[in-house]
Automatic annotation (TrEMBL):
Superkingdom of this protein's organism: Bacteria
Record organism: Halomonas alkalicola
Keyword Signal: yes
Designated name of the protein: TRAP transporter substrate-binding protein
Transport listed as a keyword: yes
């Protein structure tokens, strides 16, 4: 009898241990570049390093910035599909080359404010998620903005017309098309290469958010900033569907809620960083998060604002729609029924 009791106890203990092991999660997370700025350093990495605390789940996370992992930031969706990482912090402009619908979240001229960006991203979110699930075996868990993308130049410029003939680093094809219409040459280049390329005169100007530029030392190689918001550089978090489907409903719910909370936090933080970085880059105070520089801030004219506003219908949308429709026949139609309706197109 004692032997039977001992056996039952041993089997029960083994089953409990097996169940505990099954309930624990181990996630490989590919993050934003280490040098891309305070969002990655102060929000994203601490969140994933403490994911168990944020979710209340038994989770072990290995977080690696994309540049530390040696993975090109353009390969985020391919990495997800391969299963090499469970969760990827997607750099929207870069991975949009593999999935054009992502660019529909942030066409040039579409999101000239945080408020507009949130509305337009929410409208097209479900469609982008469906495309990632279909083509890359990945589920979208949240989106957030790196911040308004403005123009930094080595020499003096007075407005958008002065970009003619210049070589401009761009983040995505929509920006390349826009500067091309202005007579400039759009050049795609990893963030980490931009500061040196500006210093050496390989490029004349470059587009990014003020906080990222400050973190990357761009003001050391430039003299002028044109603070006209072209887009918001929408990024996001996505999880491999095999990993997602291996989780319980409770695990899925807690993880999704936690990452949605992180995304909301970054939306607010991004706006705070933008305002502070603009002051820092121009040598104004208060400068709380960045390094002070002395860039010349060019006044934005009504003429330039009109060019950016018109870019959606005249440049961004027509070119993007052809690319996206080639990948998915319903892409433009869904965009017009969602984002387009909000714009009155």
């Amino acid at each position: 009898m004692l032997t039977r009791t001992a056996l039952v106890t041993a089997v029960s203990a083994a089953l409990m241990a097996s169940a505990a092991q099954a309930s624990s999660l181990s996630l490989q997370v590919l993050g934003q570049p280490a040098g891309s700025g305070l969002i990655a350093q102060q929000k994203e990495q601490p969140f994933f390093n403490n994911l168990a605390e944020h979710t209340g789940l038994d989770i072990n996370v290995q977080y690696l910035p994309v540049d530390v992992a040696g993975v090109p930031d353009t390969d985020g969706l391919r990495v997800l599909r391969s299963g090499l990482f469970d969760i990827v912090s997607l750099r929207g402009p870069q991975v949009s080359r593999d999935e054009p619908s992502i660019l529909g979240l942030d066409l040039i001229g579409l999101n000239t404010s945080f408020e507009a960006g949130r509305e337009h991203v929410d409208a097209f979110y479900d469609y982008v998620d469906s495309r990632l699930q279909e083509r890359f075996n990945a589920k979208l868990l949240g989106t957030w903005p790196a911040g308004p993308q403005v123009i930094f130049c080595r020499g003096e410029i007075g407005g958008l017309d002065d970009l003619r003939g210049k070589r401009v680093r761009v983040g995505d094809q929509s920006a390349a098309n826009f500067v091309g219409q202005l007579g400039a040459t759009g050049i795609s280049m990893p963030f980490g290469d931009v500061q040196q390329s500006l210093s050496r005169g390989v490029i004349d100007c470059a587009i990014t958010g003020p906080a990222s530029a400050n973190s990357g030392g761009w003001p050391e190689a430039t003299t002028t900033v044109l603070p006209i918001a072209l887009q918001l550089a929408i990024n996001g978090y996505a999880i491999n569907l095999d990993t997602w489907n291996s989780m319980t409903e409770e695990q899925q719910g807690k993880l999704e809620t936690a990452i949605a909370g992180l995304s909301d936090e970054i939306w607010a933080y991004s706006e705070e960083l933008y305002e502070d970085a603009m002051r820092c880059n121009a040598g104004e105070t208060p400068c709380e998060y960045g390094k002070p520089y002395s860039l010349t801030e060019v006044p934005v004219t009504d003429e330039d604002l009109a060019k950016v506003a018109a870019a959606v219908e005249e440049v961004s949308l027509p070119i993007w729609a052809r690319q996206c429709n080639a990948a998915a026949a319903d892409c433009e139609a869904v965009w017009r029924d969602t984002v387009g309706q909000k714009l009155g197109l």
